[in-house]
Structures are given as C-alpha cells and as structure tokens.
Amino acid sequence: MPSFNFPNPSLADPDGLLAVGGNLEPETLLSAYQQGIFPWFDEDTPILWWCPDPRAILEFDNLYISKRLARTIRTNKFQVTFNQDFDAVVQGCTYRPEEGTWITPEVANAYGEFHRRGHAHSVEVWQQGVLVGGLYGVAIGGLFAGESMFSTVSDASKIALVALVSRLKEKGYQLFDLQIINEHTSTMGATEIPRDDYLARVKLAIQLKITF
Questions:
Q1: Does 212 map to a domain?
Q2: Are residues 114 and 44 in the same domain?
Q3: Nearest to residue 201, comparing CAs of 140, 113, 157, 125?
C-alpha cells in the first residue's frame, strides 16, 4: 500500500497542483499514475503532485510525421532500442543547462527503481553506437505516461517518439499521456482533452493486461 494517500484528482487547483509532500516509493508512484497523477518539482521545492486540466495526450492516429522526418527515418542512420539503457536515457533528459531540470538525483533513483520493478520504460536512439536521443515513461496496463525526452542530434527525440507510438499501437495500448502540451509535442500531433475525460480513460486503460 502507498504510504501517501492522494486527494481526489478533480480537486487540483487551477494550475493542476493537487498535493504537496509524500515520497517517491514505487508503491506511491504506482498509486499516483493509476489515478492520473504525476510528480513534478525541483530541488527548491518539496515533492509536488499534479493533475492538470486540460490534459495533453497523443492519439496514435494523430501522430504527425513530416516528409523530412520520414526521409530521415528511411535512411536507417539511427537505431532504436527499448529498455537497453534506462539510466542513460534519464541522465540524458537531466542535462539541460539552459532550462533547469526537475529530474533531481532523488527522481532519477526513484524512476530507476520503478524501471527495475517493470513499471518504467525507455526508448533509446543510437547513432554509430552512441546514444543520441531517447525518452522514458511509465506503463500501467494500457496506459503509457511519457515523462521526458532528449536529443543531442537533430530529430533523435522525434524518432524515439515515432518508434514508441508504433510499439504502443502494436501492443494494444489505449492511452498515451503527455501530461502538459509543449511546442515540441504539439508539432507531432499532441492535443488536449478535459481532465474528467482523461481520468475516465485512465480507469479503463489500466485494467488492460498488456506488457511493454
């Protein structure tokens, strides 16, 4: 049982903030994602839990692949793997000297343990044996919640996203949660839906028996 009990997600404030405090133990994280809640904070704040309204998602059939990106994918100059170097992907997402990061050592360790327990997964993009991009997120039943992505060369994170969507469709996932929309994901087809609609879809998705 999680050692932190969450309020009803519909009680989040207008910015989406739901709760403060608690811990990042695997049981707590699992309980959070099952309820459509995720942590997001930095070194200067306590643990903050969010459930924004509206919620960003990516409908699989809405994924936008530009002609240029499609050509890049066809060149096969990048190789894509899954769950081959989770910790390295998290570290890649951490390095953002100009933006700051929410992936503190505490967060990296927590999601590393979540990965070892089979709940968090990574997509790696390689070029000539070097990790140049990727993303990671949480999978529960038919829900995949994307957490963060990175790239050190052009298009690497987009290629990771395309590969992930293909895998999720193939496996029968029903919901790809992007949490909060941004310019990068919106250009790839992300949209927003009301929180209540999202929470209803989460309840259905997590009941599915799907392995990543």
A1: no
A2: no
A3: 140
61: containing domain: 55-205
Residues 29 and 106 in one domain: no
Per-residue pLDDT reduced to its tens digit, 146-162: 999 999 999 999 999 99
pTM, two decimals, is 0.95
Same domain for 34 and 136, yes or no, is no
Work out the average pLDDT over 168-173.
98
The pLDDT score that the predictor gives to residue 43 is 86
Cβ-in-10-Å burial (0-12, 13-18, 19+) of 193 comes to middle
What's the rounded Cα separation, in Å, for the pair 66 and 150?
A: 19
Does the residue 145 lie in any domain? yes
| Cα 135-137-143 angle, rounded to 5 deg | 135
Helix (H) or strand (E) holding 156: helix 156-171
Clarify whether residues 181 and 95 are in a common domain: yes
- Which of 53, 98, 75 is CA-nearest to residue 197? 53
